[in-house]
Design a protein that fits this description.
This protein is mostly loops. It contains no helices and two strands. It has strands spanning about 10-15, 55.
Protein backbone atom coordinates (compact mmCIF):
# COMPACT_ATOMS: atom_id res chain seq x y z
CA UNK A 1 0.00 0.00 0.00
CA UNK A 2 1.35 3.43 -0.93
CA UNK A 3 1.58 6.29 1.58
CA UNK A 4 1.21 9.87 0.44
CA UNK A 5 3.19 12.34 2.51
CA UNK A 6 2.78 16.08 2.04
CA UNK A 7 6.19 17.77 2.36
CA UNK A 8 4.94 21.24 1.37
CA UNK A 9 4.56 22.60 4.91
CA UNK A 10 6.93 24.19 7.44
CA UNK A 11 9.93 25.12 5.30
CA UNK A 12 12.28 27.97 6.28
CA UNK A 13 13.34 30.76 3.91
CA UNK A 14 15.91 33.54 3.94
CA UNK A 15 16.70 35.61 0.86
CA UNK A 16 20.45 35.47 0.18
CA UNK A 17 22.69 38.04 -1.46
CA UNK A 18 24.94 36.67 -4.22
CA UNK A 19 26.93 39.92 -4.56
CA UNK A 20 28.05 39.92 -0.91
CA UNK A 21 29.14 36.53 0.53
CA UNK A 22 29.03 37.88 4.10
CA UNK A 23 25.29 38.51 3.64
CA UNK A 24 24.83 35.12 1.96
CA UNK A 25 26.05 32.83 4.75
CA UNK A 26 29.57 32.82 3.28
CA UNK A 27 28.60 30.79 0.21
CA UNK A 28 31.40 30.79 -2.35
CA UNK A 29 33.94 32.38 -0.03
CA UNK A 30 35.48 29.37 1.71
CA UNK A 31 35.69 27.00 -1.25
CA UNK A 32 33.98 24.38 0.93
CA UNK A 33 30.39 25.35 0.19
CA UNK A 34 29.62 22.23 -1.80
CA UNK A 35 32.36 19.96 -0.42
CA UNK A 36 31.66 16.24 -0.16
CA UNK A 37 33.96 16.08 2.86
CA UNK A 38 31.17 17.13 5.20
CA UNK A 39 32.49 20.67 5.62
CA UNK A 40 30.02 23.17 4.29
CA UNK A 41 28.35 26.52 4.76
CA UNK A 42 26.51 26.83 8.04
CA UNK A 43 22.84 26.73 6.87
CA UNK A 44 23.06 23.01 6.14
CA UNK A 45 24.59 22.02 9.46
CA UNK A 46 22.41 20.49 12.18
CA UNK A 47 23.19 23.22 14.72
CA UNK A 48 22.43 26.22 12.45
CA UNK A 49 20.08 28.75 14.06
CA UNK A 50 17.32 29.47 11.54
CA UNK A 51 15.04 31.20 14.06
CA UNK A 52 15.39 34.47 12.12
CA UNK A 53 14.20 32.87 8.87
CA UNK A 54 10.59 33.11 7.69
CA UNK A 55 8.39 30.03 7.79
CA UNK A 56 6.85 29.29 4.40
CA UNK A 57 4.77 26.61 2.76
CA UNK A 58 5.49 25.37 -0.74
CA UNK A 59 5.16 26.44 -3.43
CA UNK A 60 7.01 29.64 -2.55
CA UNK A 61 8.40 32.27 -4.91
CA UNK A 62 11.58 33.99 -3.71
CA UNK A 63 10.74 37.04 -5.88
CA UNK A 64 8.06 38.13 -3.43
CA UNK A 65 10.82 38.79 -0.89
CA UNK A 66 12.45 41.54 -2.97
CA UNK A 67 11.60 45.10 -1.91
Amino acid sequence: MRNIINIDKEWKFSLGNAAFPEKDFGFGRSGKTFAKSGESASPITADFDDSGWRSVDLPHDWAIEID
